[in-house]
Amino acid sequence: MDIEEMVALSREAQGKFGEFTQERVDAAVRAVGKLVFDQAAPLAKMAVEETRMGVYEDKVKKNLGKARIIWHSLKGKRSVGVLDDRSEPGIVKIAKPKGVVAAVTPCTNPVVTPMFNAMIALKGGNSIIFAPHPRARRCARRLVDLFNAELARLGAPENLVQTVDEPSNELTAELMRAGDVVVATGGMGMVRAAYSSGKPAYGVGVGNVQCIVDRGYSLDLCIPKIVEGRAFDNGIICSGEQTIICHRDDYPAMTKTLAANKVYFTADRAETARVRDALFPGGVMAKDLVGQSAAAVAAAAGIGIPEGTRALAVEAEGVGRADLLSKEKMCPVLSTYRYESFAEAVAIANANLAIEGRGHSISLHTDRGENAEYAGIHIPVCRVLVNQICSTMNGGSFLNSLTPTTTLGCGSWGNNSISENLGFKHLINVIRVAHPLDDAKVPADDEIWG
Fold first, then answer.
1. Which residues fall within 8 angstroms of residue 295, CB to CB, at 6 or more apart?
2. Which residues, listed in sequence order, are joined to residue 335 by a DSSP beta bridge?
3. What's residue 186's pLDDT?
4. Cβ atoms of residues 67 and 115 within 8 Å
5. In the chain, pLDDT over 90 holds for what percent of residues?
6. Annotated catalytic residue, options 107, 238, 246, 410
7. How many CB atoms within 10 Å of residue 224?
8. What is the β-pairing status of strands 381-386 and 359-365?
9. What does the pLDDT read at residue 194?
10. What's the gap between Cα 8 and its chain centre?
11. What's the Cα-to-Cα distance from 318 to each of 207, 327, 364, rounded to whole Å?
12. Is-contact 254 244, C-beta < 8 A?
């Protein structure tokens, strides 16, 4: 089936689904999330086998956790017809679908991202067509078949959810041009193509989460969180911790705490060089190490590490452009830095973000509220996650108020159209019915200009 035919069928299905009540829409959204929750293990197994990335056990946790929190965040919210929002006096807001959603999905997250995209698309009364990464096309086909079986039981129209079975750059570009709105999750080249499609598009920026540990903050509290975030799913999540920026006085204890958490730390320049060369041949992240284990990275670098090592940590020899280790590393490797003052810690983070990751996120471990505010003011990112595991909580958590998502907007700093976590509100049009205000009066000039 060609793209033109798929979009025609999708538009027909959306026209029918767009007439569903809020209750029927929510039943469809729930069905998609519950399907992934119930099939978390086999879907995780399929994802690892097809993409050859990540960790099976972590993907099971991700499937279970994201299905739960995304549905919990969506249920009960109005997205059909008249909305509950009465924040603007005299304005009645009415939701309408955007139409056909063209969703480009990555091989690094081949189950949860399509699930999320389908849930927020359906929540807004839309249909959706996936253009998966070629390395994850079998996962996409399996998901779509499972979704449609569940949706059919609820009386949803056929072809409400579709996927391109033999994806290519050409077909993906054609789909983006033919849909009504684009949601693009993946590399910056693909995101730029989405913004060039001529259709409204939501893309994501590159991650490179800088982790600042405030002076004197408990290393026993923060290091396990940083290691958990860096090791989770072999480091392929864009919100994964990338660095440890630690005060000079705490640095020796920090390296010992890393070792206690099964991290191999080295400050040896020869070993660091081998890790750098393995990760960034020609200055670009090695594709064959994306989503691979700490043992695989060490083997590629020719370094012997203890069995059971969860991550590597290497002492960077410079910040920003002075060292490639300042870039995003999509595998369980951390780079470490010392600082004298909190302002210097922020400057290190900014130097690293200047080469990769502006707009995305940082992680801060502190008990000083003023430093969290200082970081928010002085670092150009859209999320400052405080005292949490960034990898698993930055996209929304039961323990914070960030919108549960798999797509994190990075604002103009990351060349994105939004600076918040993508949600269903981005996939609806809103009509505003404006009534005259009771007892309203036109102010005099001296009230306006005085």
1. 305, 309
2. 243, 314
3. 77
4. yes
5. 94
6. 238
7. 14
8. parallel
9. 82
10. 30
11. 20, 12, 21
12. yes
CB 128 within 8 A of CB 100: yes
Total count of residues recorded for the chain: 450
Give the pairing of strands 91-97 and 428-434.
antiparallel
Please say whether the beta carbons of 14 and 127 come within 8 A. Answer: yes
71-86 per-position pLDDT tens digit: 999 999 999 999 988 8
C-alpha distances in Å from residue 353, one per residue of 27, 264, 408: 42, 25, 16
332 C-beta neighbours (distance < 10 Å), count: 30
Judged against a pLDDT cut of 80, whether residue 126 lies above it is answered with yes
What DSSP element (H or E) covers 336?
strand 333-339
Chain-centre distance for alpha carbon 35: 21
Q: How many CA atoms lie within 13 A of 97 on its CB side?
A: 26
Q: Which domains does the chain have, with CATH numbers?
A: 3-204+416-433 (3.40.605.10), 210-403 (3.40.309.10)
- For the four alpha carbons of 117, 122, 128 and 130, in that order, the dihedral sign comes to positive
How far is Cα 73 from Cα 29, in angstroms, rounded to an integer?
Answer: 11
The rounded distance, in Å, linking the Cα atoms of 133 and 139 is 10
d(CA 82, CA 194): 31
Helix residue ranges per DSSP H, 238-341: 251-260, 269-279, 294-301
238 carries an active-site annotation: yes
Tokens at 27, concatenated: 């039943």
Cα 81 to Cα 59: distance, rounded to the nearest angstrom:
36
The Cα–Cα gap between 286 and 120 comes to 33
Where in 139-223 does DSSP place strands (E)? Answer: 161-163, 181-184, 201-203, 210-213
- Tokens 């992680």 sit at which residue? 363
Residue 278 token pair: 């393995």
The 10 Å Cβ neighbour count of residue 111 is 25
What is the DSSP-derived secondary structure letter of residue 403? P
